[in-house]
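Q: Predict the bound structure with PPS.
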Amino acid sequence: MALRAILARSSSHPAAPPPSSPTPSPTTVTAIRAASAAKPAPASSPAGGAYALELEVGLDAVRMASTLCEEVQAQLMRQDETADTKDDRSLVTLADYAAQAIIAWRIQQEWPDFTMVGEEDAEALTEGGEGGAQTLEKITALVNKTLAKHKGDAAPTLSSTEIVAAINKGGGKGGKGRHWILDPVDGTLGFVRGDQYAIALALMEDGDLKVGVMGCPNMPKTGEVLEYDSSYTYGFSPSMVTKMLAGESVGWYKGCIFAAVKGRGCTVEPCDARIKAAPTPVTVSDAFDPVSAKFCEPVMKANSSQGFTASVADNLGIASKPLRVYSQVKYGSVARADADVFMKFPKAGYKEKIWDHAAGVIIVEEAGGKVTDAGGAPLDWAGGRYLDTLDRGIVATSAALHERLMDAVSKSWSSSQL
Ligand SMILES: Nc1ncnc2c1ncn2[C@@H]1O[C@H](COP(=O)(O)OS(=O)(=O)O)[C@@H](OP(=O)(O)O)[C@H]1O
Ligand SMILES: [Mg+2]
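A: Predicted complex:
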């Protein structure tokens, strides 16, 4: 069903909540708390201890960026805004620039000399003539509006010059040392289609990932997004729409932030800070049953060989169809055991960028998983902006299943033409 039709049908019902910032019903929040209380207490939690300030700042920054992205996605869906195409033919929107600006600005408050490897730069805004200047004006207004919403009276008003400087903080070369790694809107195609996307921020020191924060504004609280293939629109699954039409509250139904700190585990909590639910520890799947197992992969055929992943899944005995999901939401899905495996095998010659994986990888690792290239080697975060030494592709799964997955990849490789 087209988005417009879903929204029109939803909004024609008086009890339907707005597409963003849902108000949780007390019953739903109690249910969430009860569910987390039933779980065994985690050995540790990402909050507190080493990197506590980095985590706090990362969460604040990603929350602000998530709010901003939700607003732009709504504008895109109403066709009040459009996406642009960059020189490399990939998509970019106001949100990509504005999210990078607000996150860099927030980090700079705490660490004025920080360095960052981020996806965007401001060249198209500063060298783009009248069009670029107009876009910069919109970005500046959007960032200031978001700051005011989150910081109230304490909010500064940033100038367009400050916004350009903040965006350009993403131009770091990376390598050894301490660097933040940012994909301000990962899965931009999903974003402009009203589907899944992620705001993915990580901190790396000398090649080790230390902190990961990933905002997934459209990721449902439960794994049902993964049950749908292309029928999931703007965070509403068909079953949620049915509930809304029946006047039932869906409470905290979407919008998740994952947080991980090296050695301290991984948690998930609502994206919307107004929804009070304690961060819940997440862990990868602890048992592998091929009959119920699920694997996820990129939506676009151009981004990963779907024939090869099908062959690997077959070797593992996985019977179900692949779950195709945009962005690093796939890593979040493995971290909270919605899926057992994530695989991406790009075409030969494609160079993976560190911002497309860093946050997702530490989130899976701290949830008890293992992420490597197709040869079983860990990813090299200190090699600059690209994962230059990557062997064929990337796999993420539970530590327990990883060796079997490697065997399955080898078996498929020896009989493939990839
Ligand atoms: N040809 C090719 N091969 C492999 N990877 C590519 C390719 N082109 C782009 N990209 C990068 O893939 C990022 C999106 O990954 P996804 O897993 O979300 O893919 S998909 O959109 O679901 O197909 C996407 O990230 P965003 O630009 O943030 O959307 C790109 O960095
Ligand atoms: Mg990306």
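A: Residues 52-77 form the longest helix (26 residues).
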